[in-house]
Amino acid sequence: MNIEASVGIIFSQSCQLLMAKRPLSKTWSGYWEFPGGKIESGEAPLEALRRELQEEIGISVIDAKKWIVRRYTYEGYEVTLHFYKVTKWSGKIEAQEKQKLAWVSPDANNISPILPANDLIFKAISLPDMYAITNEYEYSGNFLKKVKKKLKNGLRLIQVREKAISKKAYIELTKEIIEMAGNFNAKVMINSDINLAYKLNADGIHLNSSLLHRLSEKPKDLIVSASCHTAFDLEKAIKMDLSFVVLSPVQKTQSHPNATPIGWDDFGKITQNCSIPVYALGGMKNNDIKKAFNTGAVGIASQRAIWET
Question: In a 10 Å sphere around its CB, with 0-12 CB exposed, 13-18 middle and 19+ buried, how is residue 239 labelled?
Answer without folding.
Answer: exposed
